[in-house]
Design brief:
Number of helices: 4
Helix content: 40-55%
Strand content: 25-35%
Number of strands: 5
CATH class of the largest domain: Alpha Beta
Radius of gyration: 24 Å
Strand order of the largest sheet: 1-4-3-2-5
Number of domains: 2
Order of helices and strands: HHEHEEEHE
Low-confidence stretches: none
CATH topology of the largest domain: Nucleotidyltransferase, domain 5
Structural class: alpha/beta
């Protein structure tokens, strides 16, 4: 946030730009951005995320950790899901990450970042646990926000 003096200086500078056309546009854009950020800082309180714990899930994730996550997921009824693809020029995009937020009671959540390209093989026990995890998340009694 700008001090009152900085705010007044920025407004004065915006009204008295004495540069050439391209430079004037650049300075004007910078000053307008400063004023906009100041306006946001005075109108809105800073974002404070709720407490959460992150899990990066890939082939190195242990079986006990996956079992704990599954226990937590069974107690929750709300989830947020987002996906991130790999963009390859002139080829079909491939899924890279699945992000699942498990919204738990008491304003606490788990953030699961699942690295799809680095999961265990199909015949590994962790793969079965991952299938169970997604079966629970996508069960009809759960609410999913996209």
């Amino acid at each position: 946030m700008l001090s009152e003096e900085e705010y007044q200086d920025t407004k004065r500078n915006l009204n008295n730009i004495t540069a050439t056309t391209k430079l004037r546009q650049k300075i004007r854009r910078i000053l307008l951005k400063k004023l906009k950020e100041h306006e946001y800082a005075t109108k809105f309180i800073p974002f404070e995320p709720l407490p959460h714990f992150q899990f990066f899930i890939n082939r190195t994730t242990t079986e006990p950790i996956l079992q704990q996550i599954i226990k937590a997921i069974t107690t929750s009824t709300e989830f947020t899901i987002d996906i991130e693809p790999i963009n390859v020029y002139k080829l079909r995009n491939e899924l890279a990450l699945i992000q699942v937020q498990v919204i738990l009671p008491h304003d606490y959540s788990l953030a699961l970042i699942i690295e799809v390209c680095h999961l265990s093989s199909v015949n590994h026990v962790n793969f079965t646990l991952m299938k169970e995890l997604f079966r629970i998340v996508f069960s009809p009694d759960k609410i999913i926000y996209i």
